[in-house]
Write the structure tokens for this entry.
Amino acid sequence: MGSSFAEAKKQMYEALEDVPMRIGVERGMTHFSQRYSAVIARSDVMELKREIAEIRRYTLTHIEELYRQALEALTSNGVGAHYAKTKEEALSIIGKIVEPGELVVKSKSLVFEEIGLRRFLESRGNEVWETDLGEFIIQLSGDKPAQMIAPALHIPRERVAQLFEKHFGRSFNPDDLQGMVAAAREFLRGKIYAADVGVTGANAISAKEGTVVTVENEGNVRMTMTIPKKHLVVSSIDKVYPTTLDCVKEALAQSYFAGYDKPTYISLTSTPSGTGDIEKVIVRPAQGSKEMHVVLVDNGRLQAARGPLAGTLKCIKCGACQLVCPVFAVDGPTWGGQTYTGAIGIVWTAITEGVDVANPLSYFCLGCNACNEVCPTGINISGLIRWLKTKRT
Amino acid sequence: MPQFLGVEDLVGVMLQNQRKTGNPLGLDGARLARWAQGLKFNASSGTYLYTGGLYQMAAYIDSFIEALERLEGSVAGGVGLGLVKALGRLGINLSSLYSSVAEKEAVRYEGIIRNLYTLLVRQGYEFGFLGSDEQYSGVLFYDMGFDSEFQESAERLTRMLRDRGVKRLITMDPHSTLILKEVYPKFVDAFDVEVNHYLEVLEPGGATRSDKLADGVFAVHDPCLLARNLGLSDRYRDFALKAGLKIAEPQLSRRSTFCCGGPIENIAPRVSGAIAEKRCSQLGEAGGAALVACPICLSNLGRACKRKGSGPRVVDLLEVVG
Ligand code: SF4
């Protein structure tokens, strides 16, 4: 009793001394706060906030019916559609889709981290590469992702240069961000073109149309989903929305509340690629993927939707709450579980790893409500964390 | 062997104090009521000034945290003292520790309450004070997720309020205000005491800048709950401006304010301190001294800014207007 709080406190104290981490997080938070103020000053963004909060109230109370409907729609689109109750089930389904030895490229998704996808594939002899730059840095460093949108937030440029030097076998100037990004681009493009399987997450999936919506700025998601012959989507049941239009609204909201004035790419993918250009006969694939599979992971969500932590399932993982959190500001990703860190990440940890794992972390919450203030879907984040504090084991 | 105590032990110390003395630091009621010596009260309307003990305790919090950390060192570090015995000793140590707190510090915080008293009287308010019987609200237990312990405090205070026929409370810190306004009605049957923060009650034009402390520019720090939950940011500024203070806005202000770190000072003082230092830098960048309106911000930021050396001077609104 109490020992795990003591252990967490020890780690929190140690993290305070991690100067590079603190520099990285500090820079990230400062940039975020400037961008965020500009975004929320827009009336269209505030209107979208109202809409998305409303949509999320609906999806939360209809979660089960929505994901079932999505599985049906996906199947009728010719997509392999699967529900996985647990991480283990998800991995076993994925193990049947991805052949041992295939080269796999991945975009960024916290659900992958949650189920331990990269480790699993590597353990079966798959070569796996992260195509999102932040995730690629994380792959090289061996850390857990620091934040929802910027997994390498805690790694300042100086450390990125060191990691790249080790990987690429040549030196990098930390101030030459262009040079570092170009090196990653060249290397990852090579892997994407050679890959057999492209794994992406989904920001949202429509129940009615079975359309997968992704939002990104790097362009890696589009390449990952279209160039390899197999496209595997691994997402979670809370990402299902009634219609494709709702999904696009979610994608925009996620991008805005992550501090971007507009997303670079939003992709809508409903079926494997095909062409009807010769006599209107559909032939697959054309230029994109030949096969498409979607795995919807539950891992505690359905149960959570019926209990005191239900509000969490309204989260669109924009990461805004993390980037205004004072505790996250000084302790970074140390304040969190295996996958989810800071603010709402403490509650996601409770759902995906257990309340007993999240309880000791909850006591570091200040209850200052900075998170509640920014959340686009109106989640009472600090209220949920306070509830976790009451769950002493 | 873990280096730190469990949360139950840390909160347990405060709970033990609360049960014994009516406040989590274990200060005696007479000391908490000392600010009111020689002042006249009139409780006939059922309105009372409720301090919640927070400003008074702020003078002693440093010593208390130090004692907790020492306890942690002796028990968790494996020196061999049993926890119960160590707690017993802590109880004894606390009183001697507290008596070594600079009188100047205690008087400073008491002055803040006396100043509020004066402002209220000047604007024609008549009110009572519960004196050394005034109980702590239990807000800390609620914030730490110790609900039944909070309930115990809430019921104890409510009984006292009912016994004295209290109908309305004028509060002076955001934490006691919010807990009484929003949480008490959920935990206590038929809690119908009206609760108002002094910034809701006092007319902004009715105060002027006082003494030499009020010179220069003040970077306004919005206490989190004051800004986000009580919505008093405008009123706070209005009050300062109409009293003739010059104010500056830090980068994170009003509802976007950045916490002083105070709420976890008892259980993780170093994390709390790191947050406070960060806020001190932000306030320092805005220029001038830092203005707060909360005893937790006042003591936590004050300490951190001093530690930093280059940090701004931190003062409470009730120290610079009168
Ligand atoms: S809880 Fe709200 S602010 Fe935090 S990541 Fe989720 S949607 Fe964004």
Summary: Residues 206-320 of chain B form a domain with the Rossmann fold fold (CATH 3.40.50). Residues 260 and 297 of chain B are 6 Å apart (CA to CA).
